[in-house]
Design a protein that fits this description.
The structure holds two protein chains of two kinds. Chain A is mainly beta. In chain A, 6% of the residues lie in helices and 40% in strands. Classes of the chains: A mainly beta, B alpha+beta.
């Protein structure tokens, strides 16, 4: 059965008119040839594009997400999400607000505080115990604009319905130190955990 | 092309026989009456009496290219245009009222001989000029039987110093006796400019001294010549060698010079060619030439890689170049460090240190366990059905007795269930397991944690800087029934830290994202291949090592120079895992640690 699935998968891997190998992103865990294009063939990423908001009393978390087609990494191309965010803590203090950077003309969309897209199933890191078999989530990088080098931070977007997504913030495991006296903050200012967000 | 020194030797005769002067101990060289120093250019320039003499000899050496070798031949200028005296590093020896300065002669022909000019001053008056020629064995020791000594004599009648000619030190063959004296601390074999704790002094460098006996009976060979010092000399703290053969009229030998343990690193070659095989800058060249022991050790390491720093156009690898530069940077930052210090800090292999970590310490702090016990606990816990998050141990260095121990990690990330080691100045590493439902190999975050251990661990060695049991940063993982260790070979530490910092802390966010994404994709590919997390340890080891070695030259992989070790089943030893490529096939070779 696995062999059949693999054959079907390979069948889906097609060549574009330019001769570029295109791999559907929801089946992209195959060996990726250099220069290949990991394409969101089913426009799954579009479901996350927009402005999303979490509100709990004073606490507010807003994310704006956009999609970039054919983002060039150093070995391949990929459709990605990119975005910015604002976080207001339960005391009403705005800790981070980069929403005005969403249309900034960075040389690469990777400069945005949210960027990237990997399709992950329930058993892939970070594991999802209540995800349905075959259900995909999207994993992206999640940075704090004032805290460089945080280790293993990320965000996982799970589609619930057209108006609702689940956003899981993965906190850092510290930061990549710059010296033995580097005691700069090594945690995201957005608390790690899950946020149910509504489309605005 | 030996003609240059044929000129110098013109009219000379070599004295290769040694007289037995055991009964004529005219000169006793001891650590108390011999003072040696390696001078650098600024020291040389601060001794105004030297420069005029050096200029004269330099002019003499350079002028010889046009001098007739014989009536029928001349040396062309380009043949020896590179010849000169090397003044960036100069050796100084003081004995009684005499001071000897030795200069390497650069740009001479590669006939196997090294040449030094030795200027002897008595009571600050120039008393003699000599050229010492000698060859080396392959291990860099000087061949005592190769010594040749020539005396340079000026034309006193004309007063024209430029008309210096070489003359034989003696017409009598076998009337020069050479003695090599080694000075040893008697404790840890410190010698040759190293600080001797036991005696509270800087040990003099070994010296070669030479005495000519004018009225000796030539032909009585069989005198003894000591072995050149190599940093491990066996002389006694008080015992300088004796130099026999004095004439009774001179209270000091003709020459005393330092028998440099390895050839100086000279980039000036014959015909004016510059040949910088090791790609050192001028500061590094002075540094390597100023430290005999370090230079010898570096040459010995290069020899292991098949690299001859004196061979113009010879092979040189990036790895060797980085090793040399890292070592020189260490000695620049630690000017009083010995090679042993460096060895203990960087060259003791992870193999040795990892094995030490598996030993049970004599005593443990309250609540601590041995590292071996910690690994066994992780191996057991990961198998338990109730395990729902990672567990781990901090590895710590016991400042009370210099041992190592493990303490359980008490915090972990709630959203991804990963352990969070505790940063302290005596935390040098840690171990954790990956849950069975996730990937059984080191992640990119695990490499970052190893990187940080180098910054965390700041505790000084309990037994001082020479403590060979001092731990090195390490990150261990229990997965798939195996215990792995991620470590950096000493020579690769600087490279790893720089490269990794560039990726994770650099200005290009694509670098960081690429790194994470590429590794996750490699592992995810394995997941897809078997429809679940792959538990084949060889496949996982290959995947990881391909990623961190870039052996396949894939732009999705990185040459980080991290090493992967796997413990044996009873946790008594380690194997270093290396990957090799044969076409499209990759294989893992376990290399047992001795």
């Amino acid at each position: 059965m696995k062999k059949i699935a693999l054959i079907l998968l390979i069948t889906f891997i097609t060549y574009s008119c330019k001769g570029q190998i295109i791999i559907p992103m929801n089946n992209d865990y195959v060996e990726t040839p250099d220069g290949a294009y990991l394409k969101d063939t089913e426009n799954f990423l579009d479901k996350f594009v927009g402005t999303w908001k979490y509100q709990n009393g004073n606490e507010e978390f807003i994310i704006i997400l956009k999609k970039e087609i054919n983002h060039f990494y150093k070995a391949y191309y990929k459709d990605i999400l990119y975005g910015e965010y604002k976080y207001v803590n339960p005391s009403g203090s705005t800790l981070v607000n980069t929403l005005d950077k969403i249309d900034f003309a960075y040389t690469s969309k990777s400069y945005h505080n949210i960027s990237g897209a990997s399709f992950i199933t329930n058993n892939l890191y970070v594991k999802c115990n209540d995800c349905n078999p075959g259900e995909f989530r999207v994993k992206s990088n999640f940075d704090d604009p004032d805290r460089k080098g945080l280790i293993d931070t990320g965000v996982i977007f799970r589609y619930i319905n057209p108006m609702t997504i689940n956003v899981k913030i993965i906190g850092s495991k510290g930061k990549v130190l710059e010296s033995d006296t580097d005691n700069k903050p090594d945690r995201l200012r957005v608390p790690s955990g899950e946020y149910i967000m509504t489309k605005q | 092309m030996l003609v240059v020194f044929v000129l110098l030797l013109l009219g000379c005769r070599e004295e290769l026989d040694y007289l037995d002067h055991k009964t004529e101990n005219t000169y006793q060289l001891t650590k108390d009456n011999v003072k040696t120093q390696i001078l650098q250019r600024k020291d040389y320039e601060a001794r105004p009496l030297l420069k005029p003499s050096v200029d004269i000899v330099n002019a003499y050496l350079k002028s010889q290219y046009s001098a007739p070798v014989s009536s029928s031949s001349k040396v062309s200028p380009q043949d020896i245009s590179g010849i000169s005296l090397y003044t960036d590093v100069v050796e100084e020896v003081q004995y009684r009222n005499a001071t000897y300065y030795s200069f390497y002669i650069t740009g001479t022909e590669t006939d196997g001989y090294e040449r030094k000019l030795i200027l002897k001053y008595t009571d600050n008056q120039l008393a003699g000029r000599y050229i010492l020629n000698y060859k080396r064995f392959q291990d860099f020791r000087i061949d005592p039987a190769s010594f040749q000594l020539e005396k340079l004599v000026g034309s006193s009648s004309s007063g024209d110093e430029n008309s210096l000619v070489t003359t034989e030190i003696s017409l009598s063959v076998g009337c020069t006796n050479y003695t090599i004296t080694t000075f040893d601390c008697g404790y840890d074999h410190h010698s040759n400019g190293e600080w001797c704790t036991k005696l509270g002094i800087v040990m003099p460098y070994d010296v070669i001294s030479s005495v000519y006996t004018a009225n000796c009976q030539p032909g009585n060979s069989g005198g003894t010549v000591g072995t050149p010092g190599d940093g491990s000399g066996t002389g006694t703290p008080t015992g300088g060698g004796s130099v026999g053969g004095g004439t009774g009229t001179d209270q000091t030998p003709e020459i005393i010079t330092i028998p440099t343990t390895a050839p100086l690193y000279i980039i000036q070659r014959p015909k004016g060619i510059i040949c910088n095989t090791l790609n050192l800058d001028s500061e590094e060249i002075v540094q390597i030439n100023s430290n005999d022991n370090v230079r010898l050790r570096l040459y010995q390491y290069l020899a292991l890689w098949g690299i001859n720093p004196q061979l113009c156009g010879g092979i040189m690898t990036q790895e060797a170049e980085e090793f040399i530069k890292a070592a020189l940077a260490y000695f620049k930052d630690h000017p009083n460090a010995t090679w042993q210090d460096y060895n203990n800090t960087y060259l003791t292999t992870p193999c040795q240190r990892l094995k030490k970590m598996l030993e049970t310490p004599a005593s443990l702090p309250t609540g601590a366990v041995s590292i071996k016990t910690a690994l066994q606990d992780l191996q057991n816990t990961v198998e338990e059905q109730s395990t729902n998050h990672e567990e781990g141990y901090n590895f710590r260095y016991n400042t009370a007795n210099g041992s190592m121990y493990a303490q359980k990690v008490t915090t972990w990330s709630s959203e991804n269930n990963t352990v969070e080691y505790e940063r302290t100045e005596n935390t040098f590493g840690g171990a954790h397991f990956h849950q069975k439902s996730l990937q059984g190999m080191f992640s990119h975050a695990d490499i970052s944690v190893l990187y940080n251990f180098y910054f965390w661990f700041k505790t000084q060695p309990y037994n001082g800087i020479n403590d060979a049991n001092y731990p090195q940063p390490v990150h261990m993982l229990v997965a798939n029934g195996q215990a792995y260790a991620l470590a950096i070979e000493p020579a690769d530490v600087n490279y790893f830290r720089q490269t990794y910092n560039d990726i994770l802390n650099g200005d290009d966010p694509d670098m960081k994202e690429d790194f994470k994404d590429n590794m996750e994709r490699d592992y995810s590919n394995l997941y897809s291949t078997v429809g679940g997390w792959n538990s084949n340890k060889t496949i996982l080891e290959k995947t990881f090592l391909k990623f961190v070695t870039k052996i396949d030259n894939s732009p999705k992989h990185y040459n980080l120079k991290v090493s992967l070790y796997r413990a044996n089943t009873d946790l008594t030893g380690w194997e270093k895992l290396t990957i090799s490529q044969n076409g499209n096939d990759f294989s893992i070779t376990p290399n047992p640690c001795n």
